[in-house]
Write a structure and sequence with these properties.
By secondary structure, the chain is of the alpha/beta class. Helix content is about 45%, strand content about 10%. It is globular, with a radius of gyration of 21 Å. About 40% of the residues are buried.
Length: about 260
C-alpha cells in the first residue's frame, strides 16, 4: 500500500513538473516599422515585406526573457492595418502584447520628407495638418485598436511604446535641408503624438512607455545616434537603429514587462 502511494505521488509530481515545463509565456508584438525593426538593416526572410528584425525590441525581449514571440508587427502598418491583419495573432492565452502604432496614420514620413526639400519649399502646412490629425482623428483610431486588443487578449498585459523626438537642432547632412526651426516644429509634433498615444493608452489601463527621455542625446546628428538620419535605402531613414532598439526600446520594455 505504501509503495503504491509513493508511486502515485511520484507520478503526480512528474506530471506537475512536466506541465509547468510545457507552459510558455506567449508574447505578441503588434505595430508598425518602429516595432518591426526598420532601421536595423537586418531583416528576417519570412516571405513578407514587413521587415521584421531579430534586432528589434520585440525580438530582443523574447530572446532575453525566453518568451514565445508571435511577431505580427509590419513596416508601414497603420491602425487600420493592425485591426485587419494583426489582431488575429491574439488569444485568451496571450500573456503580453506590445504595440507601437499611430505614426503612419499621421503621414509622418511624408511630413519629414517635405521638410527635407530645399528652399523655398517649406513644411509648415504639413506639420500643422499632422498635428490637427493627431488631435482630432487619431484618438478614435487608437481607441478602436486598444478596444480590439483588450477583447482579443483579455488576460494579457498590454504595453504601448511611443515614438522619440528625431532631431536635436543641428544640421549635419548636406543632402537634406531640415532647418533648426523645422526640426523644433517636428519635435513639437512628435511630443503631441507621444502625449496623445500615452493618454489614450492610459485610459484603457495599458502600460505606456514614453521613450522620448531615453532618446535625448541620441537624436539624428548627435554623437551617439540611436536614430538614422537620411539613409540608403530611403526606408531606413528616421528610424531607430540597432542601438536605438538595444539601448533605448528594449531596456524600457524589460523594465515594465
Amino acid at each position: 500500500m505504501a509503495a503504491t502511494m509513493v508511486a502515485a505521488v511520484v507520478a503526480a509530481l512528474a506530471f506537475t513538473a512536466g506541465t509547468a515545463q510545457a507552459q510558455t509565456f506567449e508574447y505578441v508584438a503588434l505595430g508598425d516599422s518602429y516595432a518591426s525593426g526598420v532601421g536595423t538593416r537586418s531583416y528576417i526572410d519570412d516571405g513578407t515585406d514587413c521587415q521584421r528584425s531579430t534586432l528589434a525590441y520585440p525580438s530582443l525581449y523574447a530572446a532575453a526573457s525566453g518568451a514565445s514571440l508571435d511577431f505580427a508587427a509590419c513596416s508601414g502598418a497603420t491602425t487600420g492595418d493592425v485591426l485587419s491583419g494583426q489582431i488575429g495573432a491574439l488569444s485568451a492565452s496571450t500573456d503580453l502584447v506590445t504595440i507601437t502604432v499611430g505614426g503612419n496614420d499621421t503621414g509622418w514620413a511624408g511630413v519629414v520628407q517635405q521638410c527635407a526639400y530645399p528652399a523655398p519649399l517649406t513644411c509648415d502646412s504639413e506639420i500643422a495638418a499632422a498635428e490637427a490629425f493627431i488631435r482630432d482623428q487619431l484618438p478614435a483610431k487608437l481607441h478602436a485598436v486598444y478596444d480590439a486588443i483588450a477583447a482579443a487578449a483579455p488576460n494579457a498585459q498590454v504595453v504601448v511604446l511611443g515614438y522619440p523626438r528625431l532631431f536635436n537642432g543641428e544640421e549635419c547632412n548636406i543632402i537634406t535641408r531640415i532647418s533648426p526651426a523645422e526640426q523644433a516644429a517636428l519635435n513639437a509634433a512628435a511630443d503631441l503624438l507621444a502625449e496623445t498615444i500615452g493618454l489614450v493608452a492610459s485610459s484603457h489601463g495599458f502600460t505606456y512607455v514614453d521613450v522620448r527621455g531615453a532618446f535625448d542625446g541620441h537624436a539624428v546628428c548627435d554623437d551617439a545616434e540611436w536614430l538614422n538620419g537620411l539613409s540608403w535605402p530611403i526606408g531606413e531613414s528616421f528610424h531607430p537603429n540597432q542601438a536605438g532598439h538595444a539601448s533605448g526600446y528594449h531596456p524600457l520594455l524589460a523594465g515594465v514587462a
